[in-house]
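Morning. Coffee machine broken again, so started the prediction first thing and wrote up yesterday's gels while waiting. Chain of 498 residues, entered below exactly as on the submission form.
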Amino acid sequence: MTQGHGSTVDGVLRRSARRTPARVAVEYGERSWTYGELDEAVSRAASVLLGLGLERGDRVGAYGHNSDAYLIAFLACARAGLVHVPVNQNLTGDDLGYIVGQSGSSLVLTDPDLADRLADGVRTLRLRDADDSLLARLATAPAYDGPEPRTEDLVQLLYTSGTTALPKGAMMTHRALVHEYLSAITALDLSAGDRPVHSLPLYHSAQMHVFLLPYIAVGATNIILDAPDGDRLFDLVEAGRVDSLFAPPTVWIGLSNRPDFATRDLSGLRKAYYGASIMPVPVLERLRERLPELGFYNCFGQSEIGPLATVLAPDEHKGRMDSCGRPVLFVDARVVDEDGKDVPDGTPGEIVYRSPQLCEGYWDKPEETAEAFRDGWFHSGDLAVRDPHGYYTIVDRVKDVINSGGVLVASRQVEDALYTHEAVAEVAVIGLPDERWVEAVTAVVVPRGEVTEEELIAHTREQLSHFKAPKRVVFVDELPRNASGKILKRELRDRLGT
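Came back before lunch.
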């Protein structure tokens, strides 16, 4: 293999395999891989992919469920110089076709139960569970012996979640992701002795790039699950096999609402990470009260920055429970007004970033790239406040701020107030068109018991100014969300605004 220069995603695994070849790297179901075995599997998988006629720089879609094969495929793309395109396994129809087509994927790696969703003419290869799958071909494939990727090469197109517009493919280089891995390791106190479980979708940048790959970099043993199943997670913790868990607020809410949350022995859990969307403060307080010895880390960012931008560590929560922390090792951040000028501490503005972790722009979208990257800074679209100590608090997405009667209302503040009511299991606050108010503050609530619209409005008015209280409450059985746990407010606005 021709030696390259600089650090690459491929190099992360190679170094861990040389350092601790006999240590177990990954467990999935009945299969396990030592670091040496994983490195060899990735090398053989790289040869399989290139043997299909793919060339360096070609895009390869990954439309599959969590598995060891999914991880091997990503690392094989990185080693072979291919560009990995993770696709939400819940997408179908036009949404699925858009990402496959817009990325120009030459091949889509998929699972048997998903393959039929792809359009006719799309070239596919099963990841596993088939005689000719990528995993099955490893036994006879030669080891890859081609050139190493370069640090500036693209390694992945990370498509944004598309909660406000069509998804955009953030062009991630090896250099960007390796910088992000080091930021994650240092800010989140990741070590080889941790026992992490990875249950969120691996197509999502948070689970893959904030946890799984950084943990591979430090040489930990990683358990991959199909999904964040509460029974399985609690069993693993009680058995002493897991002490580190990442989940979005929606999953933590679900776990805390389980009847056995108060009775299971979860004392073995040492590190709890949350992110991907804003954690309601009342929910966090409930979790900390139940598990006072558990260290909670708030992880915040977005796909374009790899995705980790800021972290609030366990010893930083006191007095700032709603904060997302301070920028990580390789991230600079500012809060600016519409003209790009710094605003005083305590004043809301858009948070912007400068970092080697940032993407190179959006795939085949020059106008969107120019709009997001201005004056040397990436404009996130998040509304934030910075305090004098350098801690940031995300107020809202810029596009989610509600203009009610000419007054701006942050949906998060209203949501936190509603979460303090015992009958509210989940809530999303949105603005809906209104003749009088321009936008009416509307709470979409998943109830946990008997409660009325009038009761919730009155409860909110006890905590907030009356103009911030909902004008309307809509009760639903569940909130729409993507696979990473983000509530799809755009879908709620479309559904309820007609």
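The first strand starts at residue 24 and ends at 28. Going to sketch it on the whiteboard this afternoon.
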